Amino acid sequence: MPRFFPDILFVWNTFDEIYLLIFAGAIKFGDSLTMAECSQLVASLAACALPFQCAHGRPTCQPLLPLSAVRALEKERAEVRAAQYFPRAI
Predict the structure, then answer these.
(1) How far is CA 41 from CA 25, 53, 60, 61, 84, in A?
(2) Given a cut of 80, is residue 7 above it in pLDDT?
(3) DSSP states of 34-87 as a string?
(4) pLDDT grade for 89, boundaries at 50, 70 and 90
């Protein structure tokens, strides 16, 4: 008859309980958030030293705009600023 190891079961049960305590309140994909929760989450993220990666170095954010759109917007803003500071002579 196989021997029963209650200490191993205790360890696994403890890990399960810790997992539930840690991740039960975590935001998961598909969860609905209120505007206040979103604002608080972004404010907390802004306070982080490395807000765009997890502790293991994996990216945690995804761009919402294609980079070409961002570059086009930056170019347009630079042209507007240049026109303000260096008006063309007529």
Answers:
(1) 13, 15, 13, 13, 37
(2) no
(3) -HHHHHHHHHHHHTSSSTTB-TTS-B----SS-HHHHHHHHHHHHHHHHHHHSP
(4) low
